[in-house]
Amino acid sequence: MIPRFWRKIKFRYDLIGSYCKTCNNYFYPPRNLCPVCRRKGEIVECKLSEEGKVISYTIAHNSEGAPLVIALVELDHGARLLTQLACRPDEVKIGMRVKRVFRKYGEDGQEGIVYYGTKFIPSQNST
Amino acid sequence: MRKVAIIGVGCTKFGELWDKSFRDIFIEAGIEAIEDSGIEGREIEAIYVGNMSAGRYINQEHIAALIADYSGLAEFGIPASRVEAADASGGLALRHAFMAVASGLHDIVIAAGVEKVTDVGDPAGMLSTTIDQEWESFVGANLASLYAIIARLHMETYGGKEEDLAMVSVKNHRNAMKNPKAQLKREISVEDVLNSPYVAEPLKLLDCSPICDGAAAVVVASDEVAKKVTDSPVYISCSTQASDYLALHSRKDILKFKSIVKASREAYKLAKIDPKDVKVAEVHDSFSIAEIIAYEDLGFARKGEGYRLIREGITELSGELPVNTSGGLKACGHAPGATGVRQAVEITLQLRGEAGKRQVDAEVGLSLNLGGAGATAVVSIFRI
Fold first, then answer.
1. Quick one: B40 exposed, middle or buried, by C-beta within 10 A (0-12, 13-18, 19+)?
2. For A36, which residue in chain B has the nearest alpha carbon?
């Protein structure tokens, strides 16, 4: 599973997504083909807005670990992504402004790789 | 296209079938369907099997040939295919059987669905392989979290309450008590649902369907064959299928399942009916919110008004549009690859008037089988 993670590191560590020069739409995660223009589209890599708002969210009580705040966030560019919010469950609200931070997602045991990626925090708070 | 009928149905009990293997359950469902149809096994021309994850659940791929073999059909060498679209695999098998007969390619085929999940430790976890692994599962989401995100926004936008969602589970449990094949034959109250632990807020344990073992099979035949062998054919008017963006983040509106809208509108057109002509339906209530969204996107209620159907008892057994008379995925149990075929079995029994204590009065029925969070929808319309 390491190559599967490693080959997308650029997109996970930074908010790099896709922009289609033909239809001016932004996409995250990155796409090889524009779903609007298909072969007529011209997809280029693009750094996306680091701020956005919460469209909806859940507090996931998974079998292991503390509850996770998982949110569907819409970036100011228009692209949406599913992400963890690094905040308390009682802080999150629909429509809340958030900004991106670089955080740890997990690790493969003591000697395995550490999974880092993008999370979001309420944007009025200081990092 | 030719007229296509279901002439035989079979279904195992759904649940934790510890003493039965993958082979035991598909054979049990298949034999029941053949005996119900009155045809001989050697008359079967092809088999379509819906199965989601035999490779993950029992470490066995190539299951269509295995099923033909253990059903005693190896000597005939008939084509046997597995079709997969997450937990819409069963509905897909029915659609393939329908197409094979409607096109004139075959006269008698089997559509079956089977899933044996209890040989591994985390059967529900496997269902979450149907969501985007790289961009949804990576952040800790599972299928329940995605439906929870949908539920949260739906409730906020349209004024739904956790009590409304609970009523879906309460209804489906009540129906399951009248279904001898159901897994959870016990009554629950709205309070029971509200007091059950959160899985992914606002969804609680009793908003979620149990992932279980089960198999179902139907014999699908041309009208010509049906007229010779049965007095009670149930016709498949059409079976349609649509897809949508796999991940929620790619959908412009997460409250509308475009796959359901597209497949159902095409189905109504082909069957020449309106949503109001449907008098019994089996829909994909993998989570309680999914049944509310199904009401809306199938056109039984306007967007945002799905809650009204459950609040006013319209979808109860005694209502004008009974939904999930079998108990649905919630209480009959959800054997991922088998569910779509089990839905067809239930609608067939209802239209024949053989549904026992849960019998409703209907001549037109509908089934909706979804894959994952709705990236696949299969809609079938049945009539007598």
1. exposed
2. B250
Q: In this structure, are B160 and B70 located in the same domain?
A: no
Same domain, B227 and B255: no
* Same domain? B164 vs B40: no
Q: Which residues, at least 6 apart from A97, have a Cβ–Cβ distance to it below 8 Å?
A: A51, A52, A53, A122, A123, A124
> Does pTM top 0.90 for this prediction?
yes
Q: Minimal Cα–Cα distance from B296 to chain A, Å?
A: 20
CB pairs under 8 A between A and B: 83
Q: Which of B249, B281, B145 is CA-nearest to residue B207?
A: B145
Spatial separation of the C-alpha atoms in residues B263 and B294, rounded to whole Å? 12
Boundaries of domain holding B188? 123-203+236-383
Q: What's the ipTM?
A: 0.95
Same domain? For B61 and B175 the reply is no
Contact A55 B254 (CB under 8 A): yes
Interface of A to B at Cβ within 8 Å reads 4, 8, 12, 27-29, 35, 55-62, 68, 70-72, 80-84, 94, 105, 115, 117
Domain count, chain B: 2
* Nearest residue of chain B to residue A5 (CA atoms): B134
For B203, nearest residue in chain A (alpha carbons): A58
- To the nearest whole Å, the CA of B148 is away from the closest chain A CA by 6
Residue corresponding to tokens 């699908």: B220
User: What is the tens place of the pLDDT at every residue in B243-300?
Assistant: 999 999 999 999 999 999 999 999 999 999 999 999 999 999 999 999 999 999 999 9
Per-residue pLDDT tens digits for B82-117 = 999 999 999 999 999 999 999 999 999 999 999 999
The answer to whether residues B228 and B174 belong to one domain is: no
DSSP, residue by residue, A63-109: SSSS-EEEEEEEETTS-EEEEEB-S-GGG--TT-EEEEEEEEEEEST
The whole-angstrom distance between A108's CA and the closest CA on chain B is: 13
Answer whether residue A127 is part of any domain: no
Tell if the CB–CB gap between A56 and B152 is shorter than 8 Å: yes
- CATH number of the domain encompassing residue B15: 3.40.47.10
Question: Are residues B269 and B218 both part of a single domain?
Answer: no
Per the structure, the complete domain to which residue A47 belongs is given by 2-105+112-122
- Residues B292 and B316 grouped into a single domain: yes
Report the alpha-carbon distance of residue B55 to residue B115 in Å, rounded.
11
Residue A74 lies in a domain: yes
- Residues B342, B282 share a domain: yes
- The answer as to whether A67 is a domain residue is yes
